[in-house]
Design brief:
Layout (H helix, E strand, L loop, with lengths): L6 E6 L6 H14 L4 E5 L5 H9 L5 H25 L3 E5 L2 H10 L4 H8 L7 E6 L2 H9 L6 H4 L3 H18 L4 E5 L5 H18 L6
Parallel strand pairs: 1-3, 1-4, 2-3, 4-5
Helix pairs in contact: 1-9, 2-3, 3-4, 3-5, 4-5, 4-8
The structure holds adenosine-5'-triphosphate and the ligand Cc1cn([C@H]2C[C@H](O)[C@@H](COP(=O)(O)O)O2)c(=O)[nH]c1=O.
Adenosine-5'-triphosphate binds next to helix 1 and helix 9.
Length: 210
Amino acid sequence: MNTSYGLFITLDGPNGVGKSTIMGDLCKKLTSQGFETYKTREPTDSLIGDFLRKSEEKYRGKTLACIAATDRYYHIEHEILPALQKKKIVLSDRYVESSLVLQRIDDVDLEFIWEINKNVIIPDLSVILLASPDTLNKRLNLRSDGSFFERKKTARKDELDYYRQAAEFLEKQGFNVYVLDNESTSIEENSESITKRIVDLYNQSGEGLT
Ligand SMILES: Nc1ncnc2c1ncn2[C@@H]1O[C@H](COP(=O)(O)OP(=O)(O)OP(=O)(O)O)[C@@H](O)[C@H]1O
Ligand SMILES: Cc1cn([C@H]2C[C@H](O)[C@@H](COP(=O)(O)O)O2)c(=O)[nH]c1=O
């Protein structure tokens, strides 16, 4: 664990599952309990991240996978590690879990994806939110436009299958994975149980709460 350097928490799951909603709630809860948080996301807000966000209509497959991995290593070096060194609780909306799903939907095989991502730092907790394809489609339909991954017809079911496989795969790589149903369980209940896990990890690190 990275606990002597703060805590690193990732929040992942299919498009529209509720990552940013839960992230906002989690940050509020942790801040109100006296923790210093650092909220971040992938693609990052750097030039590489902006490039990744704009890339999906032009670049695909292994090329897009490498752009996402490049942005991730930049993220680790320039945002995640500096914030962990300041003992913050770093919360990232998407991380390597996303590549193990989105790049697979884009026909890149798992071995290649892992090969270019295997040197990432392991989060203290990797939260994966899931919901049924119907619910995901309903939530996404509320939006006016969609990305390549959101528009792809079979994407919802593929995303769910690949997230389940990613959870299993990452556990074997030593990740502490926490899979949650974000369909029938409320935003409040889920963010409460994630907060509890984070506080438990913090206390286990021997730092105490303040
Ligand atoms: N547990 C929940 N129950 C019901 N609705 C939820 C729940 N969690 C999130 N939502 C709703 O789902 C919708 C999508 O949420 P959000 O934008 O946070 O998803 P996201 O995973 O961040 O999406 P994207 O990956 O596309 O950015 C929002 O309208 C949000 O209010
Ligand atoms: C982290 C990550 C991102 N992408 C691409 C796929 C989408 O174009 C965006 C995700 O944007 P959102 O606003 O979070 O929906 O980035 C990718 O291909 N692989 C990745 O690992």
